[in-house]
Amino acid sequence: MAYLSLKDINKIYPNGFHAVHDFNLEIEKGEFIVFVGPSGCGKSTTLRMIAGLEDISKGDFLIDGVRANEKGPRDRGVAMVFQSYALYPQMTVYDNLAFGLTLQGIDEDIIEKKVKNVASILGLTDYLDRLPKALSGGQRQRVAVGRAIIRKVGIFLMDEPLSNLDAKQRVTMRSEITDIHQKTGSTTIYVTHDQTEAMTMADRIVVMKEGYIQQVGTPYDLYFNPVNVFVAGFIGEPPMNFVRAVVKKGKITIGKNTLDISSKLGDKATKYEGKEIVFGFRPEAIVLGESSDSLLIKASVELTELLGDNTNVYVDIQGERAILKVNPHDTPEMDSDISFSIPMESVYLFDGETEKRI
Questions:
Q1: CB of 154 within 8 A of CB of 125?
Q2: Which of 52, 81, 99, 169 has the maximum number of C-beta atoms within 10 A of its C-beta?
Q3: What angle do helix axes 137-149 and 108-122 make, rounded to 10 degrees?
């Protein structure tokens, strides 16, 4: 049995708003799980139900096989790191780290040993006598993480912990949190709206939309095998390109380009004859010019963005917009006409009505 089990979890508020629908997930001990999705998708609400900060309207939440719906936060063996850090401003870093242990009546010598050990792990040894206001955002976040891990609980819950940091600090803290997880071995559930955080940190990702789970899988699974248009468009930066088109005799027309997708449709070609599909391809999956076993598309360049290791090229395909990711040394000229190829194995097709992967 999984360490954490969420079975048909629902959250319905008194005003009737249904925030989370039939959430089912099994989490193994020591896993790093990331809930990702746009604002309002229910990811933080689900995390708060796991923490015991929100009541579960329907369903069962089990910790190590034992129902925990009615248990309070303290009895669930969880530690939570919030977006706002929630540090005590009048206390030094040392006292912030020690506070929870002090409340438990633990001997001062043991507390000092634990605090110094956690401070060493997080690079806070030189800041133990400082107040939070004297720390950078990244240092304050490390104190918040340290206050959680010092309790030696089995479950860490993190709600958008890096959203208040700048881009460089977020990159640093991502690696630090991953390193802490590996050292502690605790089960971690992490909430973010940033798909880059999800892809770089998670063992498995739970993609949510409007209170429903869209897909659960490894970063690799979600990137290369998305189950629907939403997941395909949410995971990846820049996002996947999508064009709607009607299938006619195994072909679709995009602008003035006629593309034969019959081999991709396979035995479903008859089913989709005369119906709309969503044609998708990732920006980096293209090859400039012609290539064998590929679909050739002609387009005009509208804008280029040099990012150092690659260039984003925004193109117009006779009324359809797309983003291409190319080698910076191959950056085409603005307003020029180009041709690019999409290898057939890099083509994604989705049902035009359900938006599910074909």
A1: no
A2: 81
A3: 130
Cα gap 216→207, rounded to integer Å: 6
Q: What angle do CA 323, 299, 276 make, to 5 degrees?
A: 75
- Listed in sequence order, the residues at least 6 apart from 45 whose beta carbon sits closer than 8 Å to its beta carbon are 11, 19, 20, 54
Pairing of strands 18-27, 66-67: unpaired
Q: Give the pairing of strands 294-306 and 337-343.
A: antiparallel
pLDDT in tens, 121-151: 888 999 999 999 999 888 888 898 888 888 7
Q: For residue range 174-194, what is the model confidence (pLDDT) as tens digits?
A: 888 898 888 888 899 999 999
CA distance 294 to 283: 15
Q: At a CB cut-off of 8 Å and minimum separation 6, what does 188 contact?
A: 31, 32, 33, 155, 156, 157, 158, 181
Q: How far is CA 235 from the centre of its chain?
A: 8
Dihedral (Cα; 158, 161, 163, 169), 10-degree rounding:
-140
CA 94 to chain centre: 33
Give 217's contacts (C-beta < 8 A, 6+ positions apart): 204, 205, 225
**E-strand stretches of 176-293:** 187-192, 204-209, 212-217, 241-246, 251-254, 257-260, 276-281, 287-288
